[in-house]
Design goal:
Blueprint (H helix, E strand, L loop, with lengths): L6 H5 L2 H19 L7 H30 L3 H26 L4 H31 L1
Helix pairs in contact: 2-3, 2-5, 3-4, 3-5, 4-5
C-alpha cells in the first residue's frame, strides 16, 4: 500500500458520504434562505447539513431492511415511499424547531435526492432479488 486513497475507497467511506451530504445540502439550505438576515441562513445550513449527514447513514440500511422484509411490488415501492415520508417529517419538524424561514424550499432538494436515491436503490435490490430467485 502506497498510502494513496483510491476513488473506490473514498466512494465506500461513510465519512466521505456524510461530509459530502453535509456540505452539499447544508450549502443548499444557506442558499435557499439567503434572503433572510444572518444568522438564519447559516443556522438552516448547519441544521440541514447535520440532518443530511445523519440521514445518509441511516437511509441505505432502512431501505435494505424494508426490502428484505417485504415481497413482490411492496418490496419495490414501500422502501422509497417510507424513506421520503420519513425524510419530509424529520426535516420539516427539525427545521420548524430551528426557526428555518424557508422550510419548503430548504427541504425540496434534499427530499428530491432522497426520492431518487431510494427509488434507484430499491429497484436495484428488487432486481437482484428477482434474479437470484429465477
Amino acid at each position: 500500500m502506497d498510502g494513496k486513497l483510491s476513488v473506490k475507497a473514498l466512494a465506500q467511506n461513510a465519512f466521505v458520504h456524510v461530509a459530502v451530504a453535509f456540505l452539499a445540502m447544508g450549502g443548499w439550505a444557506v442558499f435557499a434562505n439567503r434572503a433572510h438576515p444572518l444568522p438564519e441562513p447559516l443556522v438552516a445550513g448547519l441544521v440541514q447539513g447535520a440532518l443530511s449527514g445523519a440521514i445518509t447513514l441511516a437511509l441505505k440500511r432502512m431501505i435494505e431492511a424494508l426490502a428484505a422484509r417485504l415481497s413482490g411490488l411492496a418490496a419495490l415501492l414501500a422502501p422509497p415511499a417510507a424513506a421520503v415520508l420519513l425524510s419530509i417529517a424529520v426535516l420539516t419538524t427539525i427545521h420548524a424547531l430551528a426557526g428555518t424561514p424557508e422550510i419548503a424550499t430548504t427541504i425540496a432538494l434534499p427530499t428530491s435526492v432522497t426520492a431518487l436515491y431510494s427509488a434507484l436503490y430499491a429497484a436495484a435490490l428488487f432486481r437482484a432479488r428477482k434474479v437470484s430467485h429465477d
